[in-house]
Amino acid sequence: MRKPSVFLPLLFVVVVELGGTRVAQADFVVAEGWDLFKTDSAQFDFGGPIGFQEFEGVPLGTFDFGGTIGVQNTGDADTIVQRLAAADSGGVPGTDTIPIELVALSLVSVNPIDIGSGAEILDATINIDNGSSMDITFDDMNGGIFDSTLDFDVKFTGQTSGDMVVINKIFTATGNDWQRAPTGNIVIDGVNHFLKGDSTEDQDFWPVGVVTHDAGVGTHHDTIAVPEPSAFLCGGFAIIALFLGRSRRRPI
Fold first, then answer.
1. In the prediction, which pLDDT does 217 show?
2. Residues paired with residue 221 on neighbouring β-strands, in sequence order
3. Under-50 pLDDT residues of the chain
4. Tell me, what's the pLDDT at 215?
5. What pLDDT is attached to residue 172?
6. Residues facing 153 on adjacent strands
7. In this predicted structure, what is the pLDDT of residue 32?
8. pLDDT per position as a tens digit, 14-33
9. What pLDDT sits at residue 185?
C-alpha cells in the first residue's frame, strides 16, 4: 500500500507579544517615519535678567506629512521629530546612524516675558534644524536602545509686538529604549505605524519610558501624543523627554 504523503513546513513564523500587540518576526531595520510628542512643561534659559522661563505645549491640531499621507489629525502633539532615513543594523548586535529633524514645535510661555518691547506672552516654534542625528541599536529584531543629538534653533515671538529672538539648542540623549509595538494613541499608518508598507510592524519604531536629552540648561518634559487629554489619562505608556540645553543667541 502506498503511504500517504507527509508535508513538513519549511518556514516557521515567530510571533512575539508586546504590550498586547502582535508583532511578527521583524527585520533589522527601522524605516523612515515620525515621532509625535505632547509637552507637559518646558523651561528655557534666556540668560541675563530674564533667566529661566516656563513654557507649555500648544497642540498643533493637524500636520501635513506630505505625499500621499497629507494632512493628518495629530491630537495633543506639539512636537514632531522626523527620521529622514532608514536605519539598518545588519544584525545583532548592530547600530546604524541616521539623520533626524525636529520639524514641528509649538509652545507658549506661561508668564509674560520682556524681550524688547515690554512683558508679553511668547510663542516658541522651530526656526531651523541644523543637522540632528540618531543612533539606533538592535538588541533583537523587535527593539533595542537609541541615542540622539538634536541641534536646532528655537524662535521666540512676542504675541503682541511681534519681536523675535532666536536661540540655538543642542540636546543629547543616550541609552533610551525603543520597541516595535505602539506606545501611544496617535497611530497613523505611514507616519509611525506600518512603516514597511505591508501591514506589519516589522520596521516600526516607538520610544519607551523616559527619554532624557541633556546639555546643561533648560528643561522640556514630553509625553507621547494622544487624541485628547482624557485618552492619555486613561492609559498608555508615558514618554518623558528632559531637554537640558546650552543656548547661544543668533541674529534673526
1. 52
2. 41
3. 1-25, 228-249, 251
4. 55
5. 84
6. 128, 168
7. 98
8. 222 233 343 444 589 999 99
9. 83
Please count the other Cβ atoms lying within 10 Å of the Cβ belonging to residue 174: 14
Residues 6+ apart with CB under 8 A from 160: 117, 118, 120, 121
**Per-residue DSSP letter, 28:** S
| pLDDT score of 191 | 97
Q: What is d(CA 141, CA 144) in angstroms, rounded to the nearest whole number?
A: 8
Distance between first and last Cα of the chain: 90
DSSP 8-state secondary structure symbol assigned to residue 6: -
- Do residues 40 and 223 make contact, with C-beta atoms less than 8 angstroms apart? yes
Which residue type occupies 226?
V
Helix and strand numbers (H, E) in the chain are 1, 21
Judge if the upstream peptide bond of residue 93 is cis by omega within 30 degrees of 0. yes
Give residue for cell 514641528: 104
What is the DSSP-derived secondary structure letter of residue 92?
S
Taking the domains of the chain in order of start, what are their residue ranges? 27-250
Q: What is the Cα–Cα distance from 167 to 55, expressed in whole angstroms? A: 15
Residue 161 backbone zone (phi > 0: left; psi -120 to 50: alpha; other: beta) = alpha
Rounded-to-integer distance, Cα 1 and Cα 22, Å: 45
The count of other CB atoms within 10 Å of the CB of residue 34 is 25
Write out the three cell numbers for 242: 528632559
d(CA 115, CA 252): 13
Query: Which pLDDT belongs to residue 206?
Result: 94
Report the C-alpha gap between 245 and 150 in whole angstroms: 10
Residue type at position 16: V
Q: CB under 8 Å to 118, separation ≥6 — which residues?
A: 160, 161
DSSP states of 119-132 as a string? EE-EEEEEEEE--E
Cross-strand partners of 241: 211
